[in-house]
Design goal:
Blueprint lengths: L1 H27 L6 H7 L6 H14 L3 H4 L9 E5 L5 H8 L3 E6 L2 H13 L5 E4 L12 E7 L8 H11 E13 L3 H6 L1 H12 L11 H5 L15 E2 L1 H7 L5 E7 L12 H4 L4 H5 L2 E7 L1
Parallel strand pairs: 1-2, 1-4, 2-3, 4-5, 5-6
Antiparallel strand pairs: 5-8, 7-8
Length: 289
């Protein structure tokens, strides 16, 4: 009896935490991720020409993206994208023939992707909602794509578990989260990274403990220079534990910038070095149900 009562209290507490983070995320991400890039590129509208300019820059900047998302192989499959941003991935999925569904916590990205799909005269089902409480039946999708989204939900483990339930047997979750042992984390947050390493050495599995705004702003800010409400970083070992329900889990590190200690080198050159694979910023995963 006492155990059930404690579990009930824990569930209610977690629900309140999720709801609070979701409210903050809904407000913050209403400005689609990529808005700063659009301003930098001089993209001032959502015409086909303007979005093409944005997409070309985006795909050139992340040349490894299509290695992880096999767009052509998703033709005819039921695909859910979680976290829509400026809609580059969404449009490519639709253009390559995926039976597309999109889900985002905020309305701004939903409107952007709906506009993109309508503008190119194709079809897709784009909804506002949370992956922590997804508005879809279990086993609805052949593939789920979530690039740079799940680590902002406030509960990375639950987000992965919900994706697992939404996948058909044999389906794949393709996602990216921030890596806990990247060169940036070691340089900018040495003590927090050491603490996390010690936790893992002694058997703990999970994400980096709650980060302050300064740590979060090193990864995501809006046009007002405000940090994202919540961000998680995780190691390969802990993420593999989070994905233990899946039959297979493949991981690789990507991404690097020209910050310390790489200021003197061009990013295109840095991407060809061993550093992104050793201590890259982003952890890409393909988990198969």
């Amino acid at each position: 009896m006492a155990e059930r009562f404690v579990l009930s209290l824990i569930r209610r507490s977690l629900k309140k935490i999720h709801e609070e983070i979701s409210r903050k995320n809904e407000d913050f991400w209403d400005e689609p991720c990529g808005s700063q890039l659009a301003r930098f590129l001089g993209v001032k509208d959502a015409s086909e020409a303007s979005l093409l300019k944005f997409d070309q820059w985006y795909l050139d900047f992340y040349p490894y993206l299509e290695k992880h998302i096999s767009f052509t192989k998703l033709n005819g499959l039921n695909v859910l994208e979680v976290g829509l941003g400026y809609g580059t991935v969404a449009q490519r999925l639709v253009e390559h023939g995926a039976v597309y569904s999109g889900l985002d916590i905020a309305l701004g990205p939903v409107k952007m992707v709906r506009h993109r799909i309508k503008q190119i005269k194709l079809e897709g089902n784009v909804m506002q909602g949370s992956i922590l409480q997804p508005p879809f039946p279990d086993q609805s999708f052949d593939a789920i794509v979530a690039i740079g989204c799940l680590h902002h939900t406030g509960d990375l483990q639950l987000a992965i578990d919900e994706c697992y339930k939404l996948l058909k047997p044999g389906g794949s979750l393709i996602f990216m989260v921030y890596y806990a042992y990247s060169y940036r984390r070691w340089i900018q947050n040495t003590s927090a990274t050491l603490k996390y390493l010690l936790r893992e050495i002694f058997g703990d599995r999970g994400v980096v403990e709650k980060a302050d705004a300064k740590q979060r702003s090193a990864y995501d800010i809006n046009l007002k220079s405000e940090a994202a409400p919540h961000t998680d970083w995780i190691s390969k070992k802990s993420l593999r534990n989070y994905c233990k329900k899946f039959s297979q889990c493949e991981m690789s590190l990507e991404n690097i910038d020209q910050a310390t200690p790489f200021k003197s080198r061009e990013r295109a050159e840095l991407l060809k070095t061993i550093w992104p694979k050793l201590m890259g910023l982003d952890l890409y995963v393909k988990a198969t149900r």
